[in-house]
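## retry 2 of 3
previous attempt timed out at serialization; input unchanged, resubmitting
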Amino acid sequence: MLIVNDPCSLLIVVLATKLLEHAMNKNHLSNLRPAKKVDTSTAAADGHKPVESSVVRFSENGEAVDNEWIKKIHEALLTALDLSRVINMPADKARSQIREAATKLLNEANAPLSASTRQLVVRGVENEILGHGPLEPLLEDPTVSDILVNRFDSVYVERKGKLVETNVKFRDDDHLLTIIDRIVSHVGRRVDESSPMVDARLSDGSRVNAIIPPLALDGPAMSIRRFIRDKLSMNDLINIGSINDAMSEVLGAIVKAQLNIIVSGGTGTGKTTILNILSGYIGSTERIITIEDSAELQLQQPHVVRLETRPENIEGKGEISQRELVKNSLRMRPDRVIIGEVRGGEALDMLQAMNTGHDGSLATLHANTPRDAISRLENMISMAGLQLPMSAMRSQIASAVDVILQLERMEDGKRRITSLTEVQGMEGDIITMSEIFAFNRTGLDEVGDVTGYFSATGVVPNFHEKLKKRGSDISTSLYKPKSIGLDAA
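## retry succeeded, writing output
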């Protein structure tokens, strides 16, 4: 009797035994072969309805991958291997074992596939067992910024700011649900009929939102906001026309001078990206505490404490909100507090922190203009449950916020900083603001790209003196009302 102690060796022995059984059972091997495809042109000529091909998945270079073979080999591996052992192996060794087993099963079944298609099928089996199924090629594509699964057979991606339909498809709703459950279970969350909506993140930091029936009428849907692995710099924004030299110089000085900044914009305008870039100007000696719903910030400083909210558990208990984290962060001796996105009552605690010695704090919120951002802050303060008079709320905002940075994603897919606005103070019950820089749009070119230029408005901001006192050598000539930007083609 053979005794094997090493798990990998045991796996190979089990695999060899199972493959031998497959080789001796020709009927079983023949069952691995998908139904013969029908030539749709011939069927149509004969007056019959064309039979749908089993080739329904494509690689990103357009090469067809036989979904039916992936399914068959996956099912065969479920009986041939102890997948619990494979999943607990190191990733490289597990993929190697699955690759070897899938290749042998394809060979034993005499699969009528080309060598390149076999490789894609084997890779698809690996992704089904260890990865994110048919989404894996999209997650590995650096040009994809968003992945939008509308239903199992409809997947879109965003490339360069524009949505494009893909040929990637799931087998059915159950297949899509399996991948969703795998993603959310890795971060200790769940999705089912009692909790049909869930937010999660992938191991690389990408944000995931999933919603399933009965709320999603056409079947499970999922959105993945990709995490940018290569951190952008201010020079990158200048090169792609999102900002110009003068605005970038002033912004860097603003952060170094510890002014409080609100980054405002709609969904997908690049607020978190800008927050990451601005954080690069924070000194390495400062203690920074970040608070996020889903951790995305990529701060490079050595003294950073990252906090993340927690949803309620299956009993409906244990939720930790952003407001609780903001309150707790003030007891942690921060020099700066960075909030990924302000959504509710934590706005009041954030403003109080800005007003009580935590200068240089940064936050983002959803709004279409700087004035709308002020209104949104007022609404969120009221969500804190305190019956503050409007004048008190506005006074708090005017005292705490120094600069509002407005972002916009335009119809050509490009994201631009459209306004740098200073919050100057109060006049009566009204918060006064002055726009310092703006993007002046001139129209569209022949290919549909937005044209325009960045310019100063001629207003010298009140914070200019503070910048000089903090050591920034900013010339007032930067604020002259002339075109100082590149044409945003």
